[in-house]
Amino acid sequence: MQSIPRANSQAVGLAPVSSLTPSRVLSIVWPSPKRIEGPNGRTLQLEFRTRLSLPLFTGGKVEGEQGAAIHVVLFDAGTGCVVSSGPESSAKLDIVVLEGDFNNEDEEGWTEEEFDSHVVKEREGKRPILTGDLQVTLKEGVGTIGELTFTDNSSWIRSRKFRLGLKIASGFCEVVRIREAKTEAFMVKDHRGELYKKHYPPTLKDEVWRLEKIGKDGSFHKRLNKSGISTVEDFLRLVVRDPQKLRSVFALL
User: How far apart, in Å, do the first and last CA atoms of the chain sit?
Assistant: First the structure.
């Protein structure tokens, strides 16, 4: 009777059975899943560090409050510190448009799939919703968003609001789960509404209705014009020189 040859585990590239620990067996049967933490067990997250200047209008520049640049960071959720070294600190990021009601209930987190499922695409026959510099590269964990412009308003989606979202670009940090970022929800209005937009801060040469609480062609606006107050500069001059006269203008309304 011919003996059955025994398999030589080393000949076929396998570790000897005697050296297979329980953890080693599990690693062979179930390969390690994609990590959800960064190096050394850190939980890494992206974040917008600048609030947007609102309201936003189609065709207008997306910028931070008072015209500031919009900064984004990659930080360690455990320490609150910016991740300033390692491959993650120089990753490239994609800027996307999200539905305004994304993650309203659960502020603790979401999966990558949930985030992607709430990305808003352009309407049929329309241009991409957001145009401009749609990527930003981190430098030592910090990035600055470039020129961005909305081409469509937000009135046609369920929540009637958008959010800006930020995610790691394809090809970067693929074995590390880095949580995406989102802004607060906001409306994007048709550019025609910009004709009535307030200025923050207003300039001296702005018409007086650019100030808060004074509506264009409203009763305050008309009364001020009749009193010779047509610009912000006129208004401020009267505040300093004759505040009583200014009070009387409003008192007559």
Answer: 115
* φ/ψ of residue 121, rounded to 5: -100, 165
| Predicted model pTM | 0.64
Same domain, 121 and 207: no
Residue 62 DSSP class: P
The helix-helix angle for 243-251 and 232-241 (nearest 10°) equals 120
**Residue carrying the six token digits 């050296």:** 19
Backbone torsion region of residue 86, taken as left when φ is above 0, otherwise alpha when ψ lies between -120 and 50, otherwise beta = left
Rounded CA separation 245/225 (Å) = 14
Token pair, residue 159, equals 């929540």
Model pLDDT for residues 149-187, shown as the tens digit of each residue:
999 999 999 999 999 999 999 999 888 899 999 999 999
Among 193, 209, 240, give the residue marking a domain's end. 193
